[in-house]
Amino acid sequence: MNVVAFLPDPLLGRLRSALGSDHTVIVVTEIVGDRGLAAQLDRGAADLVVIDPGDRRLERRTHTLVVLFAQHSIVPVLIYTTLGPASIPAAAQLLREGTRELLLVGLEDQPGAMRAMVVRITMHALAERFLTATARQLAQLPPSVARALQALFATPRRYRSVEDIALAAAVTRRHLARVTRRAGFASCRDLLAVARVLSTYRLVQHEHCSLGRAAAQLATDPRALARQVRVTASVASLAHLAALDPDELLGRCVRMVCRPSGVASRPLRVRRPRSLPLV
């Protein structure tokens, strides 16, 4: 996971110590510029932004940050700061929209707690529920594969194909297919589709995204995403997807990827409705 950090040195050191080698910390020292925060977001390099609004370099830049984060609403933001007259008003403004969490220096930033918060903020609630619903299957996977699938649901836009999942798990695609089928999953292709559909659901529910914008946020082709939405969620449009009850969507996704006990490795497919194309 790529964590883009705009922090003073003491907080940056704590963040690096907590995350260790499992995550890549990309340090930025300005908002604009070739290596600035905006450039990292535009390039799709950020899975999470960690920022201290009390940093002197960000003085009077809160509105700029609000606009920038609104343009990249799928990227969660962790506000890591101290209680102070400069930081608290800015933090309050930044916390109003999007996926945001507040982490206070010296209160909740022990390494274990910080790592847990990073995982939690990068994974939206429905994806967490999906992983909970498939915990029995995940428990039967090799640890590296289970971690790769958890990362897939935390940041699906980082995974453009099944090969990317295999690379993250440090296994071959054939081995990945074998162990996931043995654990009870239909296929990794279906897991990739479910991860994208759950993220699309969040985007259309909370951000009112069009198909094109949702596909751009997830770094995938709009036609491929439209097909995955139709097959996985069994709906004909993004409007129908947004109208689904989250429990119903979750049930459809679980049925899509989990093979019943004793059934051979043939994937369970949801019948595509004969409705109008996605708009």
Biggest pleated sheet: 5 strands, parallel
Name the average pLDDT: 84
Number of H- or I-type helical stretches = 15
Low-confidence region ranges: 262-273
> Helix- and strand-based class?
alpha/beta
Supply the number of structural domains. Answer: 2
- Overall geometry: globular
- CATH structural fold name of the largest domain: Arc Repressor Mutant, subunit A
Number of strands: 5
- Corresponding CATH superfamily of the largest domain: Homeodomain-like
Residue share in β-strands: 5-15%
Distance between the termini: 32 Å
* Helical content (DSSP H or I, runs of 4+): 40-55%
The rounded Rg comes to 20 Å
CATH architecture of the largest domain: Orthogonal Bundle
Strand order of the largest sheet: 2-1-3-4-5
Can you write the helix and strand succession as a string?
Answer: EHEHEHEHEHHHHHHHHHHH
The CATH C-level name of the largest domain is Mainly Alpha
